[in-house]
Each structure stands twice: as structure tokens, then as C-alpha cells.
Design brief:
The protein has about 450 residues and is mostly helical. The chain is built from 24 helices and no strands. InterPro entries: MFS, MFS_dom, MFS_trans_sf.
Length: about 450
């Protein structure tokens, strides 16, 4: 189901606003993923004793980690809906409303009754709020990535789109920093009111992000398509008929997010379990410092990809993670905090950032503008859904005491190899003109003005 009229839309001129778009994507993603990731810390450290039966700690931990994955299961549904809307009505609309939905659902988590107060009603309400978080996150990154990619100069698309992921890392840092003083509270205060504070702060987060994103202009690519009535009437149908192979490739490559969930959630729970006994606050500092290093590493890797290509940088990150996951979990099993800190920063802060900073441009460049948001949203969110439940799978592999950490490392490494194969067999896109992205060679050759735009930018 192609749209011949879409191919006749003149290429949009350079906007001069890539920095503003990148900043809006960065700040919005930071605020939104602060909300999303405080749940991960709470699921590992607090929720097993607050929302589930405390008489069975092992089962409570398993179920708590499973609720973390519920949001990832909801994300493909959100991607289908929000991706379709974003390709129909614009990128900015989705960016605004995903932030509002995330802020509201996160704030309400901080208001929920506990298991002791409401019994099984408490975890049911918790899961419902987590589902709303997942629906919001499904449209956030895809819309922000499309926004920055379509505003960016052609030779710097990797750099500018990396700010979306840089914002995500900043959100993880904010979430970790919010929980460091909370985790240091005496248990009685932590489990009664202390854990609620980071969630309640999301009300402020949502207001700030809403104000910032309301001032952002729609992308010139989408404005041109709207002006020429060339917006796809059924983006999902066009996507699945004409671009299914790219969707499948993105799904497989997006499994790299398994590294993030294993590092940020399962490894945190394992390290602070009775079997290892590392300090909660100390492990939160590992996560926080690794994410701080990632803030610097992500744009540097992205700039490198603008010079040498997306594929070699992504492949280095994916295969490097396949190796370092063994070293990191081994360091945790030894209970050596200095070793855990050093390997954690190298593993997650530097090597994982090579893949993590590249995918916003690489995935977006696989699709034409008419289905770009849908393609990124559907492909990434299905892959991320699997990654979200990687925490639950890892818990089952490792056993209640985490003794089989080697099995978790093997599982994670296999996933990284799958990602690497998907990327290695794909098309290199860093030098393809923006007007020709996602098009077959014969379509690109016949597109009016494409070569002119490429030369002008």
C-alpha cells in the first residue's frame, strides 16, 4: 500500500532549529524517563516489601520484578496507537501528551495504598499505573527521535538524534539520585513514606516538560507532507506491507535494551540480596556513575557514527556487552565493590553507550517520513517488551539466591549476538540523504529535488 503522491513532496529545506529540537527531546526524555526508571529502582529495592506478601520474600521479589516488565508488554500496544497518530497528526502532539500521561501515572503510584493497607488491591493498582507508564513510553522515544532526525543537518543526524538517548540516561541518573537518599533512610521510614517521595515529585517534572515541549515547532518534513496532502492515511498498513523487513530488523536490534534492564534492575537486586550483601546505596552509586559517563559517551559515539557509519559503532557496543556482562556479574558474585564499580562504569557507561547512542538515528533512517514514527515505535517497543521481561527471565534462570549468575550472563550474551547479526545484515545509512531515507533505490532516483537537497545541506 504505497502512496505515490508522497514521493512527489519537495524535500523540506534545512530548518536552522536542530539545537532547539535536540534540547526539547533531551529535556523531555530526561523528565519522562526519570518517571519510568524510578519504578525500576523501587521494584528492586522497595516494592517486594510494600506491595506484595512479605511472608514469601523470594516470590515477592520475582513478582515485583515482573511488574517492571508489565510496562514493556504494554509498549507495543502504545506503539501501534501512538505511532499511527504521530504519522497522521504530527510529532509534537505525541511528544506533549506522552509526557502528561507519564507524569500523571507516576504521581498516582506515589499515592497508592500498600499491601498491608489494601491487600491484593494494592498490586493490582500498581500494575495498572505501570501499564499507563508503558503506553506513554511507547510514543516518547519514537516521536522525539523523529523530531530531532527531521530537524537535523544530514551529515549530523547521528549526533543530534543521540540527545534523545542522552536525555534517557539523564533520566536514569535523576531516578538513581532520587533513590540514594531514600534508600539510606531507616527501613521503617523507607517502607512507610520515604519511597513515595520520588514518585510524587513527578508532578513537577510533568509541568516543566509540558511547558518546554509546547514551544517546539513541528518538523519541516511533516509540515511539507501536510501542505501537499501527502500524509499517509493508514501509516500502519503501509508500514506492514512495504517496510515489514525493516520493522523486523529493528525488533531484533532493539533487544539490546536487555543489557540495560539486566544492569539496572536484575543486577541491582542480585547485588543487594542476602547472597551477596552489597550495600543498596553503593550499588545505586554504581548505576548513577555509569549513567553519568554515558552522558558523555553517547554523543561522542554518535559523532563517530556520522563519520564512519552506524553499523561499526553499534556492533562494537553489542559485541562488547556480550563479553562484559560476564565480567560484571562475576565481579558482583565476588562481592568486591571496587571491581563492581570499575567494570560497571566501563560496561554500561562506555561500551553499552556505543549501541545505545546510535539506534535513534539508525532505526529512524530505515524508514521514510510517511511511516517513520510508526516504524520506530512498533519495532523498538516490541523489542523493548522482550527486554523488559528479561529481568523476570533472569530471575528464573538464576534461582532465588542468584547462584546461577553465569546462566544470566549467557542469556544476555546470546541476546547481544542476535542484535549484532540484525545490524550487520542491514543497510548502512549515515550518508543517505534525508529525503531518500527508507526508499528503494528506484524510488530515491525519481524523487524530485533529493540530490539538490543533499548538496545544499
Amino acid at each position: 500500500m504505497s502512496h505515490p503522491e508522497a514521493a512527489q513532496v519537495p524535500p523540506a529545506p534545512p530548518t536552522g532549529k536542530p539545537r532547539k529540537a535536540a534540547f526539547a527531546a533531551w529535556i523531555g526524555s530526561a523528565l519522562e524517563y526519570y518517571d519510568f526508571f524510578i519504578y525500576g529502582s523501587a521494584a528492586a529495592l522497595v516494592f517486594p516489601k510494600v506491595f506484595f506478601n512479605p511472608d514469601d520474600p523470594a516470590t515477592a521479589t520475582l513478582i515485583s520484578l515482573a511488574t517492571f516488565g508489565v510496562a514493556y508488554a504494554a509498549r507495543p500496544v502504545g506503539a501501534l496507537v501512538l505511532g499511527h497518530i504521530g504519522d497522521r497528526v504530527g510529532r509534537r502532539t505525541i511528544m506533549v501528551w506522552t509526557l502528561v500521561l507519564m507524569g500523571l501515572s507516576t504521581f498516582l503510584i506515589g499515592c497508592l495504598p500498600t499491601y498491608a493497607q489494601a491487600g491484593t488491591v494494592a498490586p493490582v493498582l500498581l500494575v495498572l499505573m505501570r501499564v499507563l507508564q508503558g503506553l506513554s513510553a511507547a510514543g516518547e522515544q519514537a516521536s522525539a527521535n523523529a523530531m530531532t532526525l527531521e530537524h537535523a543537518p544530514e551529515h549530523r543526524r547521528g549526533y543530534y538524534t543521540s540527545f534523545t538517548l542522552n536525555g534517557t540516561q539523564a533520566g536514569q541518573i535523576l531516578a538513581t539520585l532520587a533513590f540514594i537518599p531514600v534508600a539510606a533512610l531507616p527501613d521503617e521510614q523507607l517502607y512507610t513514606w520515604g519511597w513515595r517521595i520520588p514518585f510524587l515529585l513527578s508532578a513537577v517534572v510533568a509541568v516543566i516538560g509540558y511547558v518546554i515541549r509546547r514551544t517546539l515547532d513541528e518538523t519541516p518534513v511533516f509540515q511539507e507532507a501536510s501542505a501537499h496532502a501527502a500524509v499517509a492515511k493508514m501509516p500502519l498498513a503501509e508500514l506492514l506491507v512495504n517496510h515489514w523487513a525493516s520493522v523486523l530488523r529493528v525488533i531484533c536490534a532493539a533487544l539490546i535494551a536487555t543489557v540495560s534492564t539486566i544492569f539496572s534492575v536484575w543486577a541491582l537486586a542480585y547485588a543487594t540480596s542476602d547472597a551477596v550483601g552489597l550495600d543498596k546505596t553503593g550499588m545505586l552509586w554504581v548505576n548513577g556513575c555509569a549513567n553519568a559517563v554515558a552522558l558523555l559517551a553517547i554523543p561522542l559515539w554518535a559523532k563517530l557514527s556520522d563519520r564512519i557509519g552506524r553499523k561499526p559503532v553499534f556492533l562494537f557496543g553489542a559485541l562488547g556487552c556480550a563479553v562484559l556482562i560476564f565480567v560484571y556479574l562475576w565481579a558482583i558474585s565476588l562481592g568486591s565493590y571496587p571491581l563492581v564499580f570499575a567494570v560497571g562504569v566501563l560496561f554500561f557507561g562506555v561500551v553499552y553507550s556505543a549501541a545505545n547512542g546510535i539506534w535513534p538515528s539508525f532505526y529512524g533512517e530505515m524508514f521514510p517520513a510517511s511511516v517513520r514514527l510508526s516504524g520506530m515505535a512498533v519495532g523498538t517497543q516490541i523489542g523493548f517488551a522482550v527486554a523488559g521481561f528479561a529481568v523476570t527471565i533472569a530471575e528464573r534462570i538464576a534461582g532465588g539466591d542468584g547462584a546461577n549468575w553465569m546462566g544470566v550472563a549467557v542469556f544476555s550474551a546470546v541476546v547481544c549476538v542476535i542484535c549484532a547479526v540484525a545490524v550487520a545484515t542491514g543497510r548502512e545509512t549515515h550518508k543517505v540523504p534525508t529525503a531518500e531515507l527508507g526508499l528503494r533505490p528506484e524510488e530515491a532516483a525519481g524523487r524530485p529535488g533529493a540530490a539538490k537537497q543533499s548538496a545544499a545541506v
